[in-house]
Amino acid sequence: MQRHWFPLWIGLALIAAVVECRCAEDVRRDSTVVAIEKVMPAVVNIATETVVPTRHPLEELLREFYDPYYRRMPQRQYSLGSGVVIDEEGYVLTNDHVVRRASRIMVRFSDNREYECDRVVTSSRSDVALLKIRAQPGERFTAVRFAADDDLLLGETVIALGNPFGLGGSVSRGILSSKNRRPLIGNEPMDIADWLQTDAAINPGNSGGPLINLRGELIGINVAVYREGQGIGFAIPIKLVSEALAESFTPETLKGLWFGARVKPGTQPLAVTNLMADSPAAKAGLKLGDLIMAVDGQPVHSFIEFNRLLLRAGESRDVALLLKRGNKEFTAHVRLLPEKSYFNEKLLERRLGATLQEMTPEVAARWGLQGGGLMVAAVEKDGPAERAGLERGSIVVAVEEESVTDIVAMAKLVHARKAGETLGLQIIVPRRRGSFLTIQQGVVNIRLR
Does residue 315 lie within any of the structural domains? Predict the structure, then answer.
């Protein structure tokens, strides 16, 4: 019997040691606290200053008699929100509505470090904005990690973080009450039907801050609280955030250089998710699903770094991309081109049979067009445009309900369609009769060649 007691005492001792160890670790540090500690250093307060020009009814008279002594000070408006660092070089993600009309943007971390920021890209349709901190050379920041698309569990614990009013970190916990209810359609702005729903409190100052899971991964960007329902908050899903970034943070939008492929943010390694026909990327041999391992021999850790490396080469030389397709690795050489060298008036003439010109702000204002448009300068005889009824002097304001204000944007939309497809142009036809101006609106459906 004695030999059976010795192992029992050892087991009891081990259990006691484990209990004592767990007590020493502090039972309060559960998975929620660990996730918050992981992400909070990446959360910032965003303060904006907007200069609002004002005009006094007697402005010109006062200026004529008292200038240079007369100086009317512009009014200033201030707003606050939150954001989160998504790249160690200081790229900050927030809501577009937080920084939309700001003349100056400042960010403050929970440790009271303050920096001025620049807008990089914004999207009013998705309500996503990307900022860049004006940091010292070589300075690095803690960045949040993206969750995988659609890696969402109804009822899972989620945490809304923010830094409202610059008073320090703010945390609220809840569950994921509902996933987004519909895919984004066309050029519509997003609304409640597209967002994640949670009962975690999202206060106005938390707008633009991260919504995270218990792994400390970014699953959404806090956007709004539903005033008509108590305890209901909404966030933009990370899938839609990634799509907005992939569309807006590209060599094309940043520097007007045509690469012609898009990669998916938040993935490692980066995967090619979109490829434009006849583009430099397509001609270099890239295909959908290719994984990008390195650029010019340098490993790529984020989609921001990838685009930065592409732009560093510019249009002056080829860039070597190390790609992985299946189990094989190979190198593709690609050279970026100025967009206007391909997407120009000649492409539109060739596909539409019409010559279009960009309108100056003065001409647009004369016709009452705040958003601008493209003027039809000439129509080819018996070409697609003439057969569709497009007239010289008409103004194209949208293509398939997507507004166009420059030649490059419209040429891209036309290029994406195959020969024989029909393209709907929303036009206005201004007609002046004496001192009266009339505007006729309509849609012209052109069969592309």
Answer: yes
Residue 20 lies in a domain: no
Closest Cα partner for 122 from 283, 241, 8, 224? Answer: 241
19 within domain boundaries? no
Q: Give pTM, 2 decimals.
A: 0.80
CA atoms within 13 A on the CB side of 342: 19
Residues 121 and 46 in one domain: yes
Region of 393 please: left (phi>0), alpha (psi -120 to 50) or beta: left
**Residue 394 covered by a domain:** yes
Residue pair 345/410 in contact by the 8 Å Cβ criterion: no
Asked which of 339, 359, 394 is the last residue of a domain, the reply is: 339
Q: How far apart are CA 380 and CA 449, in angstroms?
A: 13
346 three-class SS: helix
Domain of 162, in residue numbers: 145-242
The burial of 97, by beta-carbon neighbours within 10 Å (0-12 exposed, 13-18 middle, 19 or more buried), is given as middle
Nearest to 50 by CA among 88, 5, 99: 99
Q: Output DSSP code: residue 359.
A: P
Q: Are 157 and 173 in contact (CB under 8 A)?
A: yes
**Alpha carbon 288 to its chain's center:** 21
Q: What is the pLDDT of residues 323-338, one digit of tens each?
A: 999 999 999 999 999 9
Residue ending a domain, among 339, 369, 390, is: 339
Q: Is the peptide bond before 68 cis (omega within 30 degrees of 0)?
A: yes
Cβ–Cβ contacts within 10 Å for residue 179, how many?
A: 14
**Distance from C-alpha of 342 to C-alpha of 382, rounded to nearest angstrom:** 25
CA atoms 133, 135, 140, 141: torsion sign: negative
Q: What ranges in 184-278 are assigned the alpha helix state H?
A: 238-248, 251-255
φ/ψ of residue 100, rounded to 5: -55, -50
272 and 293 part of one domain: yes
Half-sphere exposure of 236 (CA within 13 A, CB side): 29
CATH number, domain of 184, equals 2.40.10.10
Profile the chain (449 residues) by mean pLDDT over runs of 10 residues.
54 61 73 96 90 54 48 61 95 93 90 93 90 95 93 95 80 90 52 82 86 97 72 89 92 94 89 94 96 95 91 90 96 96 95 93 73 89 95 92 89 93 92 73 94
* Residue 107 sits in the same domain as residue 184: no
Same domain, 261 and 222: no
The count of domains in the chain is 4
How far CA 442 is from CA of 128, 398, 414, in Å, comes to 32, 11, 19
